[in-house]
Input
Amino acid sequence: MVLLDTLRTKEYKLVVAHVNYKKRLTSDRDEEIVAEYCETYGIPFETINYSDDSNDNNNFQHNARVFRYAFFKMLVSKYNANGVVVGHHLDDDVETYVMQKSRNMKSAFVGLAQNAVVLGVYVWRPLLSWRKNDILAYASQNSIKYGIDESNFEDTYTRNRVRKNLQQSDAIQWSSLIEELNYERSLNNDKQEKLKETVMALGSTIDTAQILEHQYPEDVLRYWLNAQGVDVHAMSKKHVGAILQGIEKGTYEATFDNLELSVSYGYMNVSPNEEYKIQIDKLEFMAYDKFKISKSGERVEAVCLKDDDFPITVRYALPEDEIMMKYGTKKLNRFFIDRKIPRFQRKKWLVIENSAKHIVFVVGLGCDVHHYANNNNIFVIEL
Output
């Protein structure tokens, strides 16, 4: 509420986003406080009730974070906003640093960053120089109504226990902790700049040697994953180590929300976990989003389609797909393995399925025995 009031008085153009988790009896009261403030000052107010469709009921903090940032991302797009402003303050910054240190967590930031990208959303934290007492004093002096989240006093969450311990620190201990935080942050910033230069030269698909042969493989991996949109904020050292072990073995797969990490044949890739399927009812020479149907092309792009093949479906290959060759039926995966095609490319490989649900063409590799001819009528070219 103090963050909101300071931004309003500085005449920022705002939209307020409120997530009601419905986890305590006072959650509706808090929503009413925010709604009332927004109505008083004519600020657009967007609210949503938390819901969790995942099977991971043991990680509410993570699931809630993913949920709210998906909500934020939607609103940023809806209002064409610059990003999201959140109310973390200096006490939160120190708590985060203590938790990172106690868990031996590696992160792109020591403590909290004033400017960052979280789950694809730009985040600004303008109150990181404020102590909690400063915020309470502002609220009192400016008659800012606010609610107390009673769950902050419970020992259920690690952060609450860390907070209680820090509240027992005297002025000397606190000053020493701030000095330590600033020193570690300065060292980390220098290191991150060098890592950034390294990662900037890498794309979404890289040679795994670029990770393994680096002086700081864990840090480069974490930074690279973050650059690809993977949320590495809460990723433990153990988790990063497991990925590195998979890279060393030459094969690894993992899913991060809607992103897939895949390692095979010396390459590593992060790409969206998505399906692709488009139905074409009749032969037309035109470009689609991922391919085009042309009257000319390379021999390997040629296929002879008949009227009874339509409607055809162009989609990504599936593990169970197979194609009829002169010598019999062959699994597409055998084609991929024989040609040493990395797993992440296999998952995005386009095939054509005819009306009889048979794979008649594999884009870039060729057609089945029944659709091969000297005078092919179309060429399917991947874009």
In short: The longest strand covers residues 251-256. The CA atoms of residues 4 and 16 lie 8 Å apart.
